[in-house]
Design goal:
Length: about 325
């Protein structure tokens, strides 16, 4: 078998890195660019029920909390709306440094964050890189937590971001555009240390394919790749609450605020998420759901679906269906 070309997708590698505790822990935070930061904050606090962290920022960013992390969403003034970067959390310094080395060895630029930018993210260290499809990532470790109680302005009791008290599930999940699909999948599975949970061929979208990937936590997927481009740099992000009533209350708030419902209530086949999709100011789709699956990866087998939903999730794109 000498000289045989290796498959670009080697799930066994991510299994090995997971065993050594070297793989990515979670999708920890998002940096979102907004042409109207105040409108995004009104949506984040008034509709999603997130807490304004009340942090000062020299560049005028605002910060939204979901738990004891100092922020999960950073909303930054920008000329164009869209995702700026995804923060990927590593369990410790060793895992962080080894991953940075592996990313650099694979030929990607890895830029260490300055002291000022590190403090802004409330992390011990971070480095910026891009995946093969051009998505900007910030690899980090050692977050400084905020122990002030989470007080949702809408009375949301809590967001699903932890397990067994201390394990980090991350902020939720996100779907990134990946026009260079195979190389980008290999980047996350072989270098970052994710595993492919399941594969979806969305019905009615010829040629479309999604890889749902898990980090080293039980959330069914922390990051997914869609084999296309997207003008906002992200297909959607997901925020999870604890009960159906909290989803329903958010739906009421969204209606009162005049938010666009991108999809009706529905339940996904893969992560079991019962959710609606709303459009944030500027156009990023935000899935708001509950009941997401937590998985023991020890015995997991990657599955393939040709249906995305058990029921519901009827899509309504602004300017197309209305
Ligand atoms: Fe989702």
């Amino acid at each position: 078998m000498a000289g045989r070309k290796k498959s670009p997708i080697m799930p066994a590698v991510s299994s090995i890195t997971r065993e050594k505790g070297m793989s990515v822990s979670a999708s920890g935070y998002l940096r979102i660019g907004a042409t109207d930061v105040d409108a995004w904050m009104d949506f984040g606090t008034g509709v999603l029920g997130l807490m304004d962290a009340g942090r000062e920022d020299a560049a005028g960013a605002r910060f939204l909390r979901m738990d004891d992390h100092p922020f999960r969403l950073m909303i930054e003034p920008a000329e164009a709306d869209g995702l700026i970067a995804t923060g990927l959390e590593f369990p410790d310094e060793v895992a962080f440094l080894r991953t940075c080395d592996a990313v650099a060895e694979a030929g990607h630029t890895v830029a260490p964050g300055s002291a000022e930018e590190t403090a802004r993210r409330c992390v011990t260290a971070f480095a910026t890189t891009t995946d093969p499809s051009g998505n900007t990532l910030e690899l980090y470790w050692g977050r400084t937590l905020d122990y002030r109680p989470l007080i949702s302005p809408q009375g949301v009791p809590g967001f699903v971001t932890t397990y067994q008290q201390t394990g980090d599930l991350g902020f939720g999940h996100l779907v990134l555009p990946a026009a260079d699909f195979d190389a980008t999948t290999a980047f996350y599975t072989q270098i970052i240390g994710m595993g492919i949970t399941d594969i979806l061929y969305p019905p009615g979208m010829a040629g479309a394919k999604i890889h749902f990937m898990h980090a080293n936590n039980p959330r069914q997927h922390s990051l997914a790749l869609f084999n296309s481009q997207h003008p906002l740099g992200v297909v959607h992000i997901m925020v999870e609450v604890e009960t159906m009533d909290e989803v329903g209350r958010a739906m009421d708030r969204a209606r009162s605020a005049g938010s666009h419902f991108l999809a009706t209530l529905g339940r996904h086949v893969n992560d079991n998420m019962c959710s609606v999709y709303l459009l944030a100011p500027g156009g990023i789709a935000v899935e708001y759901g509950y009941d997401g699956l937590l998985i023991d990866w020890e015995n997991h087998v990657t599955t393939v679906s040709i249906e995305g939903d058990l029921w519901g999730h009827e899509y309504s794109f602004p300017g197309v269906n209305d």
